[in-house]
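Now for our target.
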Amino acid sequence: MLMSPNSHKRENYGLFVPTMEIFSLTTLALASATAALLLPKAHERLQLSLAKHRSLAGHSRMAKRVASLIPGYAYDEARFFNCDGVPDEVEQRRRAGFARLADELNGRHARSIALTQQARSGIADLQFTGAYRVPFQFSPYVRERIAVGAFVQRADGVTLTDLDGQRFYDLTGSYGVNVMGHDFYKTCMAEGMALVSELGSVLGSYHPVVFDNVQRLQAISGLDQVSFHMSGTEAVMQAVRLARYHTGRKRLVRFCGAYHGWWEDVQPGLGNPLPPGHTYTLSDLSERSLQVLSRRRDIACVLVNPLQALHPNAGAPGDGALIDSSRRTNFDRAAYTAWLQRLREVCTRRGIALIFDEIFVGFRIASGGAQAYFGVRADMVTYGKTLGGGFPVGVVCGRSAWMKRFRENRPADICFARGTFNAHPAVMGAMNVFLRRLETPAIQALYDNLDATWDGRAAKLNARLAKAGLPLRVANLSSIWTMTFTEPSRYNWLLQYCLRAEGLALSWVGSGRLVFSLNYTEADFDAVCDRIEAAARRMVDDGWWLPGTQSNRDIRRGVLKEMLRQRLHRR
């Protein structure tokens, strides 16, 4: 029987049809299984993205990319005095006022400035803080004409005295260390050294004051165990490491804008050469953030810096980024308390370590710290700054289950953390004096009606500024204050120099953070108010604050256009 030349093809095709059907069904099943696996992950990823704050502060990688595109440029003299299109008469007032201010500061603090200029080439920190006191467009011109002395010779009560004998009311807070006043810490340091003088610098063994310190910290924190470190950054590093060790998870959650030291995982984005490796930066006070915590299985710990209650989802305010008047603060104690309570509930349910970073606010807003102030207990708490009684220190307090660094059943599985100077005798002695004095009636009296005292002072100053028609206000979390502005301006950053000319010492971030010690009397505070009002009047009289020139949106758009022009010109 003869067969058609194509008959074998038809026979093969008959076999091929069911094979194709089987292949299609298999492919569909694989695709369905893949989708079933990927869809939950995609949903998790979407939830995570939605829980991040919409600003660049909530997106670390994007913030670094944007930062790399911003060109450095400086205003020439004409642009420096008139970047907002004011009339010639106002520009001339500004020029004259700036010259007077420069002459006053440079002449009054000549010795302090001279030593600062000599030291700057050898101190990297001075180079950095000098460059970033004001927005970068203005910085070179300011640095050429106004110098700030970095050296002081003594501190008394609530004042600092520089090398020229000029006295300032101290609003620097010594980066948060100075809670009780300078004389308090002089006493702690001197008495602490005397306590441990016979031991000297012996390390590894403990002076007996260490045991007393541990007992007092257990009582204050309500937690079981304590470890000592030499800085707040180190303490946070150890708390995070312990959380990862005990959970077997690698991710940590921090909230947008919060500062937890300068090491990689807790400072993603600007200032860190490395991209965030295992860090989720979520929105503060956000339901979506709670949803992420409730559903993900890779989160070891949640870091909370209670200072963020003053400016949720925004970084610490500094004058180096003060290009307009849009700086805002919003402290709502009840709302932040409710937020911490919900965080506590979610972390407990999911086996996540809740860590309070009280390096800055510990012993400032309450003698029991933020845990006592907000009424929420953490699994671990880090302390530092003021706790050292004037010496450098970091401390982790935690529940026993979180603090253990080894496993009996797996002897090689440890969580190592040591430091040469941990529990240094001088630090432990000063800490002991600090903790003992904390319990005295005189110091406890400083905490009586603390919020009412400092809220009342802020309200008093704001009323005074409003009555004088000055576009300046203050917002506060207890004795931690931020200045805000009610009228748009490109020149708010200059206020820090006017405040200095009036006898107020600020840290290098300027008007973004004023930190009072609790020993300020009403007379001291009234003197500070006089100086703040005088500085604000100078800003008005010299034409730096001129209502109705530009809106904040106009200012931001104008600066963006400048940057784009500079970028395109360089390309």
